[in-house]
Design a protein that fits this description.
heterodimer, A: alpha/beta, Rossmann fold, 43% helix, globular, B: alpha+beta, Hypothetical Protein Pfu-838710-001, CHAD domain, 2 domains, eleven-stranded antiparallel sheet
C-alpha cells in the first residue's frame, strides 16, 4: 500500500481537486484506491456526493472505538472508496494529542490494517502546519504539494522541504507540482519553467487554472470523469502518469 | 457472486402469458419509489463465465466452486465456498489454453486447490454467456447507493464434462436474473432496494446459484460421477440379477473413463478404468457361478486381456507420479542425476500409451463392451437364468462368497511365517483384494457400522501388503528399465547410480512392510477381527 498525501500549508491552492482527480485516475488504472478527506470543510466528500459525516466523529476513529473500515464509503467509481470528512476533524489536533502513544504516528497506525485491501491511499489534508499535518507527513510515502507559481508560494515550499528534511528516520518523498497556472501571466510562466528545471522534485506537468476544474463543484464529480478528454483532464492524467512512473 | 443470496432474484411471469422481460418495468417502477434509477453509462456488456472442476467433482465435494471469469485477455479465477463466500482470487493472462485439461498457472487459487485436485486435471463443466445491464440507484444527492444488475444468462454444455446426459454444445436459457449489489457503506439502501423488488409480483428470490441453475437447465447433476460400485441391489433379488446389475455398473464406470483415457486428460481416468476392470474380473471369478458358464469364461479372458493391456502405461504413470517423492529421498545422488531416467519414462510412456489408445479404439475392445452389455442386460431383465425352481438370492450369494473369502484369508495368512517366500504375501494380497471387492459389491446389504469396521481393518492389512508388493515390483521394474536404458545407450553412470539408490530405498520399504505384516494380520484375523466379521455376517445380508 502506497500512501500519497496532497498537502500545502496554504489553502485554496488546488489540493482537493488534485486529490480527487488523482484518486480517480489511480482507480481507473485498476488500483484499489482509498481517499481520506481529512479536511473538516469536506470538499472532497462533497465532490463525490458523500455526506461529510463519520459515525462517532473523529474521536471514535482516533480512539479506535470505530475502525477506519467502518467509515469507508464506496464512490460511484470502480475501485475507489472514500473516508468522508467530519466536522469534528476540526478538533483533530486535540484528539491526536490526547490519544496516547506517539501522537505524530497515529494516522499511520490507523491506516496499517488497510494495507491488504488497498494499493493506493490518498490523504487530502487541511491547510496549516499542525499535529494533523505532521501525522500526515509521517504516514505518507509521497507528499504531493500543489504550488501556485508565485514567489511567496515557492518560499513556503522551501520551508516545507526543510521541515521534512529535519525528520528523524523515515521521511516522505516530496513531489511538488504547479497548480492553478495562468499561462497569461508572465510570472507564472517564468517560475514554472525555472523551478521545474532547477529542482528535480518539481513535476514537469503543471495543472492549469481552468474554469472546467471549478465546475467540478457543480458536476460533483472529478473532471477526469465528467470531461475526460478536456485539457484539465489531460493535465491531471499527465501528472498522474509522472507520479505513478516515479513512485 | 455465484450463490443466491437475499438480494438475488429471478423473474418468472405468474400468468405464463407474458415474458419475464415484461416484468422488468414493474421492478424498475418499484425501485423508483425510493431511488432515482439511471442506467449505467455504456452498452450492456457480455460476461463469459466457465465453471471448472475435476471429472470426479473434487471441488464440489469439498464444498467449493471455481469460476473463470473471462476478460478480453485472460481473466479472473474465483474460488468460493458453496455459499458464495470468496476463498481466493487470481488474475490470469493467456489462459485457458485450447485443450480440455486446464493447467492452472501459479497463484493463490492454485495454492488453495492443488492439494485437493492433484493429480486430476480441471475440466470445464458449464459455460455461460450473460448479457449484463446495470442500473444505478441514486439517493437524493445523486449518489449511487446500490446497483441493479439484470443478467440474461445463456448456458452451453461443455465436453468432456464430468458426466451427465447432455451433449456438448447443448444450450439453454435461464430465467432473467436480477440482483441488488451493495455499494460499500450503504447496506441499508441495498436492503431497502431488495425489499422493494421482493414485493413485485413475479419477482422471487433466486433459489439456485447461476452455476446450479445452469447445470439443472442442462439436465446435469453435480457429483454424478463416482468410481465406487454403488449398484442398486437388494437382499431378496435373484443373485443373477444382482450380479448383472453390479457388472453393468462397473461397465458404466469403465466406459465413462474411456474418453478421458484416450484424450490423456489425467492419469486417474486410466486408474479408474483399471479398477473397474479388476472389479469386473473378480466379480466374474467369485460370482460368475450365477451367470451362464460360457459367458463367464469368455469375458473372464477378455477382461484379462483388457487389464493386461493397460498395465504398462499405468506402471509408468505410477513411476512418473511418484517421481518428485522419489528424488526427494535421494541422499547420495542429486535429483538432476535422475533426469535422464525421467525422460526415458516419458518416452516409454508415450510409446505404451499409443499402443493402449490404438487397442481402445479397436474392434476387440468395442466388441467386449457392446456384447458384454447386451448379455448383462438380458440377464438383468430376464431375472433368472436356467430352470431352477428357487434361484439363489443376492443375500445368499453375498453370505456364502464373503464368508468363504474371509476364511480363505485367515487360513492363508496364518500359514505365513518369517521364512515364507514373498509370493505367499503377494497371493494373500490378491485374496484380500477379492474380499474387499466382495464387501464393496454387497455393501448395500450390510449394516453400515459393521461394514466400516471390517473394511477399516482390511484396508490396513491391504496397505501393508500393497507396500510390500509395490516396493518389490517397482524395484524389479527399475532394474528392467535400467537394462532398457543401457540397451538404448540412454543411461549415464550417475543416473544408474541414482536408480540404484532408489532401488535400495525400495528394499528398505519392503522390509518395513514385511516387519509390520504380523501385527496387522493379527488385528484383522485375530479373535477381535473374527468377531467383527461374525457381526457383519450374522443374520445379514
Amino acid at each position: 500500500m502506497k500512501i500519497f498525501a496532497t498537502y500545502n500549508i496554504k489553502g485554496g491552492v488546488g489540493k482537493t481537486t488534485a486529490a480527487v482527480n488523482l484518486a480517480y485516475l489511480s482507480a481507473a488504472d485498476g488500483y484499489r484506491t482509498l481517499l481520506w478527506d481529512l479536511d473538516p470543510q469536506g470538499a472532497a466528500s462533497f465532490l463525490f456526493r458523500i455526506k461529510p459525516r463519520v459515525k462517532g466523529g473523529g474521536k471514535a476513529l482516533i480512539r479506535g472505538t470505530k475502525t477506519l473500515d467502518d467509515a469507508i464509503k464506496g464512490t460511484d467509481f470502480d475501485h475507489l472508496d472514500l473516508i468522508p470528512a467530519d466536522f469534528t476533524y476540526r478538533n483533530m489536533d486535540l484528539l491526536l494529542g490526547g490519544s496516547g502513544g506517539k501522537p505524530t504516528r497515529k494516522l499511520a497506525q490507523l491506516l496499517r490494517p488497510l494495507a491488504a485491501e488497498y494499493d493506493h491511499v490518498l490523504l487530502d489534508c487541511p491547510p496549516s502546519i499542525s499535529l494533523v499535518s505532521e501525522n500526515v507527513m509521517h504516514a505518507a510515502d509521497v507528499l504531493l504539494v500543489p504550488v501556485i507559481p508565485t514567489t511567496l508560494s515557492v518560499r513556503t515550499l522551501d520551508q516545507l522541504t526543510d521541515f521534512v528534511a529535519g525528520f528523524n528516520g523515515r521521511r516522505p518523498e516530496v513531489l511538488a507540482f504547479f497548480s492553478m497556472v495562468d499561462r497569461r501571466k508572465k510570472l507564472h510562466q517564468e517560475i514554472t519553467r525555472d523551478l521545474s528545471a532547477e529542482r528535480p522534485w518539481v513535476a514537469a506537468t503543471p495543472i492549469p487554472s481552468l474554469s472546467l476544474i471549478e465546475r467540478m463543484s457543480v458536476e460533483r464529480a472529478p473532471v477526469t470523469a465528467f470531461a475526460s478528454s478536456s485539457a484539465a483532464a489531460r493535465a491531471y492524467r499527465a501528472l498522474w502518469s509522472e507520479i505513478s512512473k516515479d513512485f | 457472486m455465484t450463490t443466491p443470496g437475499l438480494r438475488d432474484f429471478v423473474l418468472e411471469a405468474p400468468s405464463g402469458n407474458e415474458s419475464p422481460e415484461d416484468l422488468l418495468p414493474a421492478a424498475l417502477a418499484a425501485l423508483s419509489q425510493a431511488f432515482t434509477v439511471t442506467p449505467e453509462v455504456g452498452a450492456p456488456r457480455a460476461r463469459r463465465r466457465t465453471w471448472l472442476d475435476t471429472f470426479d467433482w473434487r471441488l464440489y465435494r469439498a464444498g467449493l466452486m471455481l469460476e473463470f471469469d473471462q476478460a478480453r485477455r485472460g481473466g479472473r479465477l474465483l474460488l468460493s465456498k458453496a455459499d458464495g463466500t470468496p476463498q481466493a482470487e487470481q488474475t490470469v493472462t493467456g489462459w485457458p489454453p485450447r485443450r480440455p485439461a486446464l493447467d492452472l498457472p501459479p497463484g493463490p487459487v492454485r495454492d488453495r486447490i492443488m492439494v485437493l485436485i492433484s493429480p486430476r486435471a480441471l475440466l470445464p463443466i458449464v459455460r455461460t454467456v450473460s448479457t449484463v445491464s446495470v442500473a444505478r440507484l441514486l439517493n437524493a444527492d445523486g449518489k449511487t447507493v446500490a446497483r441493479l444488475v439484470a443478467d440474461h444468462v445463456a448456458v452451453t454444455a461443455v465436453a468432456p464434462g464430468p458426466a451427465g446426459p447432455t451433449a456438448a454444445g447443448a444450450t439453454a436459457e435461464l430465467p432473467l436474473r436480477l440482483a441488488i449489489t451493495e455499494v460499500r457503506g450503504y447496506p441499508g439502501q441495498a436492503r431497502r432496494a431488495s425489499a422493494l423488488l421482493a414485493g413485485v409480483p413475479g419477482v422471487s428470490h433466486a433459489s439456485q446459484s447461476v452455476f446450479t441453475a445452469a447445470l439443472t437447465a442442462l439436465g446435469r447433476h453435480p457429483a454424478c460421477y463416482t468410481s465406487g460400485v454403488d449398484a442398486e441391489i437388494t437382499a431378496s433379488m435373484p443373485a443373477s440379477v444382482a450380479v448383472a446389475r453390479l457388472l453393468l455398473r462397473l461397465l458404466d464406470t469403465l466406459e465413462q473413463n474411456v474418453g478421458g483415457v484416450l484424450r490423456d486428460i489425467d492419469t486417474e481416468f486410466l486408474h479408474d478404468l483399471r479398477v473397474a476392470v479388476r472389479r469386473t474380473r473378480s466379480a466374474i471369478k467369485l460370482l460368475g457361478g450365477v451367470l451362464p458358464a460360457d459367458l463367464a469364461r469368455h469375458y473372464g479372458a477378455e477382461f484379462k486381456w483388457l487389464g493386461d493391456l493397460t498395465t504398462p502405461t499405468r506402471d509408468l504413470d505410477v513411476h512418473l507420479l511418484g517421481f518428485g517423492q522419489m528424488t526427494a529421498q535421494l541422499v547420495a545422488a542429486s535429483p538432476a542425476d535422475l533426469e535422464p531416467f525421467r525422460a526415458f519414462l516419458v518416452r516409454r510412456r508415450a510409446r505404451e500409451f499409443r499402443r493402449l489408445a490404438a487397442a481402445l479404439r479397436g474392434p476387440r475392445f468395442r466388441a467386449i463392451t457392446d456384447d458384454w452389455r447386451k448379455a448383462l442386460l438380458e440377464i438383468r431383465d430376464a431375472g433368472v437364468p436356467g430352470k431352477r425352481r428357487r434361484p439363489p438370492t443376492a443375500a445368499g450369494l453375498a453370505l456364502s462368497t464373503t464368508g468363504r473369502a474371509f476364511r480363505r484369508i485367515v487360513a492363508h495368512g496364518a500359514a505365513i511365517t518369517a521364512d515364507s517366500p514373498p509370493e505367499s504375501l503377494h497371493d494373500l494380497r490378491k485374496r484380500a483384494k477379492e474380499l474387499r471387492y466382495l464387501l464393496e459389491f454387497f455393501a448395500p446389504l450390510h449394516d453400515p457400522v459393521a461394514y466400516r469396521k471390517v473394511v477399516g481393518e482390511l484396508k490396513s492389512l491391504q496397505d501393508c501388503l500393497g507396500d510390500f508388493q509395490d516396493s518389490q515390483v517397482q524395484r524389479e521394474e527399475i532394474h528392467a528399465l535400467a537394462d532398457a536404458m543401457l540397451a538404448e545407450r540412454a543411461a549415464p553412470a550417475a543416473t544408474l547410480l541414482a536408480m540404484g539408490e532408489i532401488a535400495a530405498k525400495l528394499t528398505l520399504s519392503q522390509a518395513e512392510a514385511r516387519a509390520d505384516f504380523a501385527r496387522r494380520f493379527a488385528r484383522f484375523a485375530g479373535p477381535a477381527g473374527q468377531e467383527r466379521f461374525r457381526v457383519l455376517l450374522k443374520d445379514r445380508p
